[in-house]
User: Which sequence fits this backbone?
């Protein structure tokens, strides 16, 4: 009932010519791939370029961040209307790099989630604990706090459109991936928390795993019952690696 979703977060990589080539290679590589959704999140400056490449392909466009207001005196920010205009379907919100380097709080993430939904953008809401928090046994407490503060005021029709990305901070860009069991434990916990507060609609919410996802670990991760896809950083800059991740196994619908 949950269509798997694989999203490439290109971060601050990709001049337009590079972005065009990468997007074209991803489109070619996932052609004919059914039973899952694939999206790429280029930097803002490459969104329109990548959009041209993605037209008529099943690959969707995502943005990496967004302000919650439609317009105004917010120098350097990009609004939901602007993302809509360039054809974004998804927007990544509350990435740990935004939280860590740019001071994004759960309250800001919550406003962004509401704004995204109001503008027909699918928010991909990132949550995850640091290494210190994990070692102190605080993982579930930290992640539930982030989920509660960002999401739990949403009503069931809204929450079913949200995507959650569990990204342990210690696994992002480090090559240190969570084991499928570690990831499943947190994913299962997030779903339980959602079920307790918004009810059965929790079964429809996609929960992605992010943190050093590579071609050689995606298949094992995707076997877990509550892992519904991946948010991929580093490996999404390599078309071949990203396409292999999007073509995760087991699958009976590959061409
Ligand atoms: C990310 O930044 O969302 C991420 C998961 O990065 P990486 O795959 O490089 O760990």
Assistant:
């Amino acid at each position: 009932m949950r269509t798997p979703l694989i999203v490439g977060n290109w971060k601050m990589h990709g001049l337009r010519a590079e972005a065009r080539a990468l997007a074209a290679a991803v489109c070619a590589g996932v052609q004919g791939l059914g039973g899952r959704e694939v999206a790429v999140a280029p930097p803002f400056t490459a969104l329109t370029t990548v959009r041209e490449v993605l037209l008529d392909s099943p690959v969707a466009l995502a943005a990496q961040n967004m302000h919650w207001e439609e317009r105004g005196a917010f120098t350097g920010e990009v609004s939901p209307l602007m993302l809509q205009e360039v054809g974004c379907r998804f927007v990544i919100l509350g990435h740990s790099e935004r939280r860590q380097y740019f001071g994004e709080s759960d309250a800001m993430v919550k406003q962004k989630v509401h704004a995204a939904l109001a503008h027909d953008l699918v928010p991909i809401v990132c949550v995850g604990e640091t290494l210190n928090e994990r070692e102190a046994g605080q993982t579930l407490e930290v992640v539930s706090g982030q989920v509660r503060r960002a999401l739990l005021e949403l009503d069931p029709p809204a929450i079913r459109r949200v995507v959650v990305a569990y990204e342990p901070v210690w696994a992002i860009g480090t090559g240190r991936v969570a084991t499928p069991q570690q990831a499943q434990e947190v994913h299962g916990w997030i779903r339980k928390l959602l079920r307790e507060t918004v009810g059965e609609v929790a079964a429809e919410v996609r929960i992605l795993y992010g943190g050093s996802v590579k071609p050689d670990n995606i298949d094992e991760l995707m076997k877990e019952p509550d892992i519904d896809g991946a948010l991929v950083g580093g490996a999404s800059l390599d078309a071949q690696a990203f396409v292999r991740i999007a073509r995760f196994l087991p699958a009976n619908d590959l061409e």
